[in-house]
């Protein structure tokens, strides 16, 4: 399934792009699975996604836990904890 | 009255306050957050998740409106390059009751800190820069409202 | 910065807020109380105890300054004849920390309600008038800060 | 001893004046004693001072309880609970 990925803050900087469209393998059921899959790409991806504890996510523009399902998702964003306000 | 604005432009705290005061509620509270210049900070950049930001703020506003009786609610959050002394965020509330106005104002800024998709990167006079780390204090401040 | 003013003149919330924002603290909170026009209120008169008022307010300000780390504190309280929509009171605080600014602001208005020598008399469109009664809620709001 | 009395809000209106200088009898030790003594004057005074529970006081411009001493006081103010803010 084709999903739009978005990266923000140092995740974006480490990956070197602000997003990409990917076809997710069927083995990826949760956001955590996706993070592990991205980390395995090496280089900037390994750096950005090596430590899931430092990451937060939104699926279709709603914040979710990393154990959330990605089934049917159109847009998945990965980023550090927010620091606005 | 509910007004939510996300953008690069500075805003006029005074005019926002005047609009809230004109609602007839009798109690208006506001909070303004500004860039501090301590530690040799030269500038700050605020990134956000454009497609999500406004509805994340609308959701936070709706929670405040459900919890307190408010006549008016304003959230302004800037993005882009900011310098020491620049305003970052304004939260304002109007109510018939001072506790409602003040508590809702405090709630809104605590939730904005932890539940809205903004990220700050600080640049220093020595050329260094770093992404601001989320603070456990902010999570605790937000959790206080869960009870 | 501490500014305390008691007088009949209206005040400029915007300018007060701008002065607090200029202190470099990063966090500014404010509360404005205004005359509500509900129930046919035509005007309100605020009496006070002139010889005592300013030092009662200074005492309240000192308590807030001792309890929170504040860069600025403003209390403006009007006296005399006021009409619906008129500002009565402004409380503003500046700090390096949002919780300090917001809590001190809430503390100041709760204390002003119960620990400063002001009395309100309301006049109604039907010619009736009455002194406002103190509210047990206000005592409880103030007592919350004693803990 | 000569003391300046001040009245505010409906106390002032009931008494019909905003203050007066009085010589307190030596039997008056507390603000409550003073309130009772004023109530005994009748008319507006009786109306203003009949119910001590409705009254508050300041001695020399500091709030006090009604059981506070008036010894050495120069200025005693009597008024309803405050309603500012």
Estimated helix fraction of chain B: 25-40%
The residue ranges of chain B in which pLDDT falls below 50 over 5 or more consecutive positions are none
- CATH top level of chain A? Alpha Beta
Structural class of chain B: alpha+beta
Task: Determine the mean pLDDT of chain B.
Answer: 95
CATH-derived architecture of chain A: Roll
Based on the coordinates given, report the CATH architecture of chain B: Alpha-Beta Complex
Q: Give a quick account of the main beta sheet of chain B: strands, pairing sense, barrel closure.
A: 4 strands, mixed
The order of strands across the largest sheet of chain A is 2-1-5-3-4
Strand content of chain A: 25-35%
How many domain modules of chain B?
1
Classified by CATH, the class of chain B is Alpha Beta
Compute the number of structural domains of chain A.
Answer: 1
Strand sequence of the main sheet of chain B, in spatial order?
A: 1-4-6-2
Verbal overview:
The complex is a heterotetramer, with two copies of chain A (85 residues) and two copies of chain B (147 residues). By secondary structure, chain A is of the alpha+beta class. Chain A has one domain (2-79): Ubiquitin-like (UB roll) (Roll), CATH 3.10.20. Chain A contains three helices and five strands; from the N terminus they run βαβααβββ. Chain A has a five-stranded mixed β-sheet with strand order 2-1-5-3-4. Chain A starts with a strand and ends in a 6-residue tail after the last strand. The model of chain A has no long low-confidence stretch (mean pLDDT 96). By secondary structure, chain B is of the alpha+beta class. Chain B has a single domain (2-143), classed as Aldehyde Oxidoreductase, domain 3. Helices cover 36% and strands 35% of the residues of chain B. Chain B contains four helices and eight strands; from the N terminus they run βαββαβββαββα. Chain B has helices spanning 13-21, 50-67, 98-115, 136-143; strands at residues 2-7, 27-34, 41-48, 72-78, 80-82, 87-95, 118-124, 129-131. In chain B, the strands form two sheets. In chain B, strands 1-4-6-2 form a four-stranded mixed β-sheet, with helices on both faces. Chain B is globular and about 50 Å long. The mean pLDDT of chain B is 95. The chains are: A alpha+beta (85), B alpha+beta (147). Chain C binds chain D through residues 33, 46-49, 51-52, 55-56, 77, 88-89, 109, 112-121, 131-134, 138, and chain D through 6, 8-10, 58, 61-63, 75, 77, 79-85. β2 (27-34) of chain B pairs antiparallel with β2 (27-34) of chain C, so a sheet runs across the interface.
């Amino acid at each position: 399934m084709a999903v739009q990925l978005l990266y923000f803050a140092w995740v974006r900087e480490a990956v070197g792009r602000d997003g990409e469209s990917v076809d997710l393998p069927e083995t990826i059921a949760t956001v955590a699975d996706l993070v592990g899959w991205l980390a395995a790409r090496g280089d900037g991806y390994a750096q950005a996604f090596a430590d899931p504890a430092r990451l937060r996510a939104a699926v279709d523009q709603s914040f979710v836990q990393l154990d959330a399902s990605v089934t049917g998702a159109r847009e998945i964003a990965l980023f550090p904890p927010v620091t606005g306000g | 009255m509910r007004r939510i604005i996300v953008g690069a432009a500075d805003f006029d705290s005074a005019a926002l306050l005047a609009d809230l005061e004109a609602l007839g509620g009798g109690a208006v509270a506001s909070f303004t957050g500004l860039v501090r210049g301590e530690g040799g900070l030269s500038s700050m950049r605020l990134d956000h998740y454009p497609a999500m930001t406004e509805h994340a703020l609308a959701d936070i506003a709706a929670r405040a409106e459900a919890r307190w009786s408010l006549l008016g609610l304003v959230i302004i959050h800037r993005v882009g390059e900011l310098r020491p002394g620049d305003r970052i965020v304004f939260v304002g509330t109007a109510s018939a009751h001072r506790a409602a106005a003040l508590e809702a104002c405090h709630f809104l800024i605590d939730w904005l800190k932890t539940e809205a998709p903004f990220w700050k990167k600080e640049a220093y006079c020595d050329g260094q820069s770093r992404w601001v780390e989320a603070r456990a204090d902010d999570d605790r401040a937000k959790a206080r409202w869960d009870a």
